Input
Amino acid sequence: MSDPWDLPQPDLFSYSSVNQIAYDWAGGNWYFLDDSKEVIFLCQERKNHAKLMCLSIVSVRLSKPRGIALDPSEGYMFFTEWGTAPPKLERALLDGTERTDIVSKNIVYPYGVAVDHPNRHVYWVDTYLDYIERCDYDGNNRKTVVRGAPVENLYGLAVFQNKLFVTSWRENAILAMNKFAPNNHSTVLGSLARPFAMHVFHRQRQPLHSKLYTHDPDSDAADKHPCQSLDPCHHFCVPSKLSPYYRCVCQTGYVVSDQRIGRCSLVQPKDFLIFGQNKPGMIRGVGMQFAAPSKSDEEDEADPHSSEVMIPIPGLSRPTTLDFHFQQSYVYFSDSQTYKIQRAKILGDSVVTEDFITEGLNKVEGLAVDWVGENLYWSDEGLQAIYVTPLEKHTAKKTLISGNLSHPRSIALDPIKGFLFWSNWNSVEDHLDISGSISWSWLDGSERKVLVNTNLHWPNGLTIDYDNSIIYWCDTFANKIESLNY
Output
């Protein structure tokens, strides 16, 4: 413990917004909880990798996660959350699947959470109700351990044998109390400025599954989990309650191709959906096999990492627009907070992002790839114009459309027929009865004409059905999707 060391930087996110961390001592995995991006990451150090290999395992239906605790011997993680959605305490498997709400009533601001492994109890603090409560792993046998003045404004929580340890913002101290006589508390350490998380350092706080103990002190495999003694998985080895007590999980964009040896292979999709998001900021690709959701599906919903078919493009803030070049396997995109147009080559064993255009940009809102003429088109709302540049010699650009453009937004191309389409929003000063518009021209910007300018306010998301010559768009103001034959 006297030798400090630095954990490598993760490949999908930055430590700057991480507010909780948990270590899986059985599988050797790290869990990072990011309440600003509202996501839980699973990460692992791998040989010959300069960065932590990470996977987003919980990123949907997660409103401001606050605390996290693990029990690898049972294969569970527990996390508290409260934000815009109702507050609750959840349980999930260590790969983020099989999520279950175990406490969702009479809970307001749950923060710290801790596990009592021998008794299979989960403890948590509620900083609004000033409670410490507990329940079993299924959410049953709930009990208020202590309430009121001794536990006002708590944050962190730890359990060891018959003791509870808490960090108190009211006392600016770490307090200790007996689980069975909690009103008699003592100060472990005082005069602290807003103490946060803490743990009890003891062997009993990191148990393994009972069947994994050999009871042979001379055995090399004594007290080791198969994830570490066998290293059976290509990417992530996640502890499980059932034999063989682990499950192999692949990095996004890979699938387990051989379960016997835990081998992961790149997905080779024929078609998939690409989308950008800002929590966390990245571009992802998911398969096109959709099924009608049922009520039970929504209740048991798992995160979509199992359906992802592309290694994500990470490290972005707000990727507001993107397009792709199929033959070259490039995704072109603009991040509204970097004032750049960038591109990344996808469907390989890694993703490398490179700058494409870094000058002369203000607020890019639309991108479109001309795969026939090998050009890139974009709309710049800040400069109130539409531009084009060759994909190979992108240092030169040409202004195609300018003038009478208050807020040029989405653009779309039909390179086969030679058409350029774009949408324009009203200026703030315009009256609401003056519609936005969708216009079109030839690909060189000539023969500019208005296609639609009635009953339209904020048209966006232009896309084309090339087979039937239909253009689709959504109206962000009217909350509807419309189409037109051209």
About this structure: Helices lie at 226-229, 295-299.
